[in-house]
Amino acid sequence: MLDVRRMQVLRAVITSGSVTAAAAHLGYTPSAISQQVSALEKETGTVLLERVGRGVAPTAAGLLLTRYADVISRHLAEAETALADLRAGRAGRLSLRYFASVGPTLLAPALARVRREHPGVAIDPRLADPDDALAEVARGDADLAVVVRRPDEARHPGIRVVHLSDDAYRAVLPSGHPLAAGRVIDLADLAGEPWVGSEPPGPCLTPIVDACAAAGFSPDFVTTSEDYATAQGFVAAGLGVSLIPRLGLSARHPGVAVRRVRRPEPVRAIHAVVRASALDQPALRTLVEALRASAGQ
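The structure corresponding to this sequence follows.
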């Protein structure tokens, strides 16, 4: 493999017309320049310079390598500029994963801030299953993921977990339901009701099941929809009651009543997960800070 640094020395000699002039430009001794050119000639197996009067002139092989050295120099300069832009947050790409209910509430304002502060950074947000999203971050396929995690969930090596919000579940009842008359409902009061499931098996369903168990019962799911809007429609039609997280109720069905729940109040914990090694990217740090700010509001 050819030594790029020696190719640059050869280019300097040919451009300046002499070893002495190249040495002055590069800050080397003439002897050091000659040694570099000799080493490159050994690597290539051909003569690159020939003596002409008091100076030197390139052979055909020397001219060929000089042209490639020019290309390499331009590419190196472009790489240095691109790297500087990336380090400063002026360029690059952020790939992130999220689940639907955090999109309009947490993610949208956070992405708007990143776009304002880092307009040169491309943003690639994609919906993903929370279980898959963490694995994508760990593999380096995504820079950040917004996920729901249990308090006792094991930490992954090299992954930084940032708490964003505790999203409480609300009771969703048909608008004419007797329990809708109160502002707060004891969870145990829903024990004898038919239930509309609003969550798939996983970290978002676990808080509901655990809270119901703490209240002394297991919910009787008569139908299930993994879409919050549809689940509200099922409730409005009288199929049952449901628990839906606050962030999932940004679009509320007119035929339901939403009430706080207590004793206990089910809560899902929302976190951002990133690789600790990736946090040197200014745009990624801004995104984490913006997500925390959105959650605080």
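The mean pLDDT is 88.
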